[in-house]
Every structure is written in structure tokens, then in C-alpha cells.
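Q: Start with the shorter request: fold the first protein.
A: Done. Sequence, then structure:
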Amino acid sequence: MAKYYDVHPENPQQRTISNVADMIRSGALIAYPTDSCFALGCRLGNRDGIGRIRSIRNLDERHHFTLVCQNFAQLGQFVHVDKDVFRVIKAATPGSYTFILPATKEVPRQLLHPKKKTVGVRIPDHAVTQALLADLGEPLLSSTLLLPDEDEPMTQGWEIKERLDHVVDAVVDSGDCGTEPTTVIDLSGGEPEIVRRGAGDTARFE
């Protein structure tokens, strides 16, 4: 059964955040809120967690996982960023954007797009996510909590607990965080390419 944590959306309780971070370090797969919708998350090298995310969402090997980072310094460890890309990302973060970029050697091979060797990265604008990332000290490997054959992500923590009770280890709930996933921008080819229109405004990339 999944543990259920009810946290304040703006001032999350540090003890609770630390408990969740400890679970992640020990190999847990969690469902947690972001600035666009709920996500599934685990440690970067957690093979079991990655497998469970693929199973829950019915994902194939071409799926781009996302590294949810606390800040730009952390993001820069995992993807190659030139000056032009730096300016683009800096202007849009923190926010509801996922950027696809060439990965560094810090990213495990099983997370990369098999042909492009790219990975998604983002810096969320959400107090609970940021508190969790600060305590964890590393990115969360994540994927939008969108179940197969459903059009919209689940928005209620209690519903996630009810439906995924035996496949996730914890649910972090801070209230409704919306149904719109991030806007996905592919920057791996130099020019911005809008892959998915979502919660982030695309005007700056068009």
C-alpha cells in the first residue's frame, strides 16, 4: 500500500518532505504534484522505478523521460547547453516547460532516446516540488501521470492513492495542480521545435 502525505501547497512541512526524500533514496516510486499536473518520480538510477513507470503508463523505448531539476546549475550537469540555448531556457524557467536536449554521460543509457541520445529536462515553479528537490539534492526522474487510454492526467491525490495503491510507494498531495501537462520544446536541433503545447506559453518559441 502507498503511503499518503498531505502537504501544504506553499509552505510544505519539512519533516514530511524529508520523509518522502528518504523514501526516494531508498528506491521508492512516488506520485507528486508539479506546476503543470501530477507526475511519477524516482531516483535517476532506479531501474525498478523506471520499469514501473513504463508499466503504469505503457511506454515504449522512444518515450522521453524528464529529469526534474531544482535549478539551472543542476540541469547543466545532465544536458549540453550552449549560449543560445542557455538564454532560451533561462528566460522560461522556472515554469511549465520541458526541454529536450542532448544528454551528458551523467544520464543512464536506458533513459535516452535510442537514436537521438536526448533527454527531457525541466525546472518547475512549484513550492512542494522545489522543497523535495532541495532535500533530495538531485533530479527526480519523472513522467506525467497520464494513464493509458485516458485523455487527461489525474488531478486528485486521493484518487491516485486509490487507483495506484499497489504500484507506487507514496502519494504526495498538495491539492489540485491542474490537468495540463508541460509544454515540450525540442532544442536538440538548434532551432526550437514545439513538440507538445501545454501549460507553458509557446509564443516565445514561435
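Q: Next, the second protein, separately.
A: Sequence, then structure:
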Amino acid sequence: MSEAMIPLTAAVLTVSDTRTEETDRSGQALAERLEAAGHRLAERRIVPDDVYRIRAVVAAWIADPAVQVILTTGGTGFTGRDSTPEAVSVLLDKRIEGFGELFRQLSWHEVGSSTVQSRCLGGLANATVVFCLPGSTGACRTAWDGILAEQLDSRHKPCNFANLVIPERGRHVHA
């Protein structure tokens, strides 16, 4: 890769009724990985698993032209309070169907059939890419290392999501 990577600005949201800044290992792992890759962390927050509180934070970040990437962790399972997909899906202009499919394929090697309980999702909204990940730190590492690191790198060919959210590009750039 001869061209320089264009850093993106990302926000990280942890959805949890119990985690605090001190105990939020998943949000921390995502923040560390994106910064290690050369991206900027705009904001990191924790909200309870409440559909309207999740939606309010994600909608505000989608509306903020400075935020290009939103990563959420938590609330994607099947328990009674898991509501991240319901909160976020209505905000998306386009869904990235292959994200959940590829995540579950990668996750299969780590958690076996339990991967079917992951309702992770990805999408685009207002020139912002949004990825909703499970709450486990391992799942966040799997998603970042196996998918997001490349897809948020403007140099990744033949296509990536970075080139859709970089204002001067706003589309796929092919080799």
C-alpha cells in the first residue's frame, strides 16, 4: 500500500445496564484498536440498554458531520433488554447485509453454534458507517481484526467503507 491511510473519526457506544468506564473492556478494546490503526476517537459513551437512549445517541452522532464511524458494543443478543438492533436499524439508510453474515462466519470458529444468537448489524446513514457488535470483548476483537480493520482502511482494495464516508471521496475508489 503506497498511499497514506486517511484517518477516520469514530465514536464508540457501549450498551450496558451494568458496565462503567472502569469495567467496559469491550468499548476500551474498540477504542484502542481504532486508535492503534491511526483513526481518531471522537467520543466514547455508555448508555443503558434502552431503545430510545441508544437511538438518541446514535442519531446525534449520525447527524454530526465530524463523526464518520459509529461502533456500538452490546445489546445485540436475545435477552429481554437487548435492543440495539431495534434502536439502530430504523436510523440506517442502507444495511450492510454481509457484515452480520461474515461476522457470524468468523465467530463460528470461536463460539460454535452460539454465533447464531448474534444480531450484529452494519449500515450507512448520512455518510456515516455504523456497526453494532456484541458486548463481549472477544466478539469486538473478532469484528475489528477480521472485518473492520480492513473495511475502515482507505487503502484496502478493491473496496472499503472508508471511501464512502470520506467527504472528498464519498464513493468506492477502485484500483
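Q: Describe the second briefly.
A: Helices lie at 25-36, 51-63, 84-89, 97-111, 137-151, 162-165. The mean pLDDT is 92.
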